[in-house]
Fold these 4 entries.
Entry 1:
Amino acid sequence: MAKEKKIVKVEKDETKKEEKGSYGFDKEGKIVKVENKGDAKERAKTKRILAIVLWILAITFEVIGILRLTDKINWFSNIDKVPFVIGAIVLDLAFFIPGSLLWKKANHIDPRSEKNKAAFWTWNNLGTILSVLAFLPIIIFVLTSKDLDKKDKTVVTAVATVALIIAGISSYDFNPVSSEQLEKAQKEVIAEVGVDRVYWAPTSKKYHVDPDCPAFSQSETIYEGTVADAYEKGLTDPCRRCIHALEEEHEEEEE
Ligand SMILES: [Zn+2]
């Protein structure tokens, strides 16, 4: 016999004018609170502000590294110049990557229109563009330094170049979402089931319009939410299996 499935809902609380936290029941029948979601645009805005703060902090570490390299400051004078500068580059990267990940996440919650392709690309890959600013200047200062010997220059340049590549790639959005794409997906779901409501399991790669989709046969918990909620989880493709099943049902009804 099939296991009984538990549906975890992501519901809207009208009185609070924001989406209430999702809840449901675990295996023992206990209520599970998943997360507290606010308005999509507001949530995206918070993530974008935090991303910018993290990027600024990252670039601040680069500037500190450059200042120490050029003897403008002498902080932590007990640490040699080379390990200090490498430490600054590592901190630069450690703040830069979370900033970029938040930026990309915000753009999946509140996507931008793709009508202007250049603006769309620039906005989605702002982290990749900024990674040049976060690592290239220090590379130039290292290479032109009169203070460092050849070996030190090679080591620090290698570290900064690897950091630049890691930051650039991790900031790039390989699967960007546009507002048109999200709107089309919402319309399709509404056309099929009459309401913006979809389902997914923790291991799902797609969202489903039918909570009884065979894809859920092994799932004990499934989540219910809007298409935007599914997009936020990185699920941007609908399960064709349940959409086709629904379409067949509609056709039978019409006959
Ligand atoms: Zn399905």
Entry 2:
Amino acid sequence: MHAAEASVLEAPAATAVTVIPLGAALGAEVKGVDVADGIGEAQFQAVRDALHRHAVIVLRNQHLSPADQIAFSKRLGPMRISFYNRYAVPDHPELTVVSNIVEDGRAIGIADAGMLWHTDASYLRQPDMYTLLYSLEIPHEGGKAIGDTMFVNAAAAYEALPDADKRALEGVRAVHSFTHHLEKKRLLGNLKRAPLTEAQKKETPDVDHPVVRTHPVTGRKCLFVTEGHTASIVGLPEDESAALLERLWAHLKNPAFIYRHNWRVGDLVVWDNCTAHHLAVFDYGDRRRRLYRAGIAGEVPV
Ligand SMILES: [Fe+2]
């Protein structure tokens, strides 16, 4: 590890981080980084800058133990331990298993995560700032990987709004609700997880956040309402609230703002939950899919 760090300092050209945009809207592949081998400070800053510039970064061909993933995650900030500890990676409560695999009659992970557009843990007072998802098993069909993840650039979506909308949304807040999210999922027939315990319900009371939040690092304004977790606009009658949310959600689905990630085993995908919202594509039935997720705690959105 010390040798690798020294080589970054002494021979930057040999260990340069290369950033290749993956889509017009957001997303970039970051090359030249082997996370398990240890990353020097200069390399890490290049990765972090790429994350803020592109909102979603993809590091291919990684070979990560849970400890490697945790060590890298902690460099981005304090990890938030999920209250779904029943789906934690064994002996690593910092990581959550995202999977449809059932072993010995027991689901090894969350099987229904991300079916609606959302941004991670927006139903908490302090939503996750970043998410790191590492793929271990990816389903295929006809030689092509399936089970993609879609990302939308919520800063670009905000910037594309008419000025009148931007003015109208100033100071407006919306309610984000985990209970509402699970009920919406149940009504769609997609709920596949155990119901919340009373203790878990207490940990996730409804919260309100600004409809337009400002990124703490880039300063960009980002639309912050999601189909998955935003229940209502504060202070509006129910019909007006629903109509405004439907309009903003439709705006956030414009293909011009979207990057669709086609997974490979060994991908470490890191995203910024302020600039990017995301959606999991459930097109793989019961073909095995397994990823490990880490969440980095964020500040209260402003
Ligand atoms: Fe998510």
Entry 3:
Amino acid sequence: MKRLLVIQGGGRPKGNTSQLIEHFMAGARAAGHTVERFSLVTHEVKGCLGCNACRYGKPCIQKDGFQELLPKIQTADCIVFASPLYFWTFSSRIKALIERFYSMAQADPAPVLGRYETYPVRDCALLMTAADNYFWTFEQAASYYQFALIHYIGFHDKGMLLAGGCGDTNGKPQIDKTPHLKAAYEFGKGLYQF
Ligand SMILES: Cc1cc2nc3c(=O)[nH]c(=O)nc-3n(C[C@H](O)[C@H](O)[C@H](O)COP(=O)(O)O)c2cc1C
């Protein structure tokens, strides 16, 4: 059985993204996995300052939610990023966290073309919600996920659940009127079945 860490990058307390996460977690628990949820709304993680102290053997100089999150990332088998779609991509909170992964990088004596360092190898998955539901709605988010997290950082992709048509934030969350919650449960349950 696996240890899953769901990192929530935003969304209303009982909103579409929270509901999607809850159903995903219920499915994962039904399959016997241990699941922990970490909110970047209640635990602020700021973006990288580019000071490079971490490249000289020092811990990150910023003192924020990353110190609490780091050991959870280091012991998780799978990191599940969860975010509402904000201006056609991840929330800024998820992006800020990904920048802080810089401090986890290690020197690679023989990097492949276009890669400069190595990162801890983890599985990862993506959960997102959006108001729109066009074929291009999640294009930038999915592209960034594939490019930065899978191809560059080197996480192993366990899949994406991109839940469009959940209603905008002017009104009540609408995700319960879509098939996405059931799909999230099945996604969590089947994450390591194949
Ligand atoms: C700042 C902001 C930006 C948004 N940008 C988009 C967008 O680019 N495309 C879209 O389809 N929905 C967009 N939405 C709608 C949300 O992605 C959608 O309502 C989401 O399900 C809200 O999640 P929550 O219920 O967990 O808060 C945006 C909402 C906000 C508040």
Entry 4:
Amino acid sequence: MNKITLPNTLTVSPAALGAMNFGTTTPRDAAFAILDAFLDAGGSFIDTSNNYAHWAGTGDESETTLGEWLAARRCRDRVILATKVGFDRHGEGAGLRAAQIEHWVNESLRKLRTDYIDLYYAHTDDYDTPLEETMAAFDRLVRAGKVRHLGGSNYDTWRFAEANATAAAQGGTPFTVMQQRFTYLHPRADLPPKSRFNEPTGRERLRYLADKNIPLVAYSCLAKGGYAADERLPADLIAGDRLAFLRSMAAEKGVSASALAVAWMTNLHRCAGFPRVIPLFASSRVEHFLDSLRGVDLTLTDEEMDALNRA
Ligand SMILES: NC(=O)c1ccc[n+]([C@@H]2O[C@H](COP(=O)([O-])OP(=O)(O)OC[C@H]3O[C@@H](n4cnc5c(N)ncnc54)[C@H](OP(=O)(O)O)[C@@H]3O)[C@@H](O)[C@H]2O)c1
């Protein structure tokens, strides 16, 4: 798998591994096997958060499991580690006040057993804290060497732009990566979003990212397993002809629909109006993970991309 260099200079694998369930619903041994397989395949970009997966445990498990794996394999220098701050963990942790950011970064570093984080995301917006305070606190982490780059997740596009304008006005560090829900299937327009968090990426957001040369890390990009099994498809996605087309092209090419969805995302920046997209996906099983990862090495022709886009 060839690595890609992002506009912010981070060099990453073209797909990212989601560690959200590691240490909770994906037990430690299975997590280690998936991490080993990803590294062996040339993968490097790994995603976690300071609160994963608190709904199934304490919220420390994912970072702790990754820290144990990094120590056991002595591979910190081969990994690009992304983690996040700002979401709830059992009633604590929500918010992006300076004191919260300073506290949680140290907790993440301790659990991950590292002295730096490659990419540190605001996990979701905090309307109650001035952007000046949040962006200044993040900038101090960069200057202190605890964090290399910043990202924003689950922000409205205009608020992401305001955060970056605030950083620029302060002479600070901007968000250079956005993480948002995005997949091949279109969302249903007739359902109100469950929350700001989890809102699917629309065309306007994609155009903004393309224009600003900001990569999109696409979460839940395998539709929660829905390309492999209908019953897993989230109810707010439209399946219909587009899913049927994806599956038929996948069958013709001899790959799974999950792998073709990954390939569509890694090739999308070749199409006008789309940013670089890095699919971020997860599995509890090595064979499923590697099946999806095959998409990274699939090159799609312009005609195939056009047909997928139009379906
Ligand atoms: N920023 C945020 O707010 C946010 C929100 C959600 C997630 N995330 C990040 O994104 C990562 C992935 O998100 P996600 O888990 O929501 O969505 P996802 O990657 O779209 O879906 C994961 C599911 O897909 C199934 N799957 C994967 N490959 C498969 C294959 N080849 N065949 C059959 N099933 C397959 C897995 O089932 P099996 O276990 O059976 O393989 C798993 O349950 C998380 O780990 C986390 O790092 C971020």
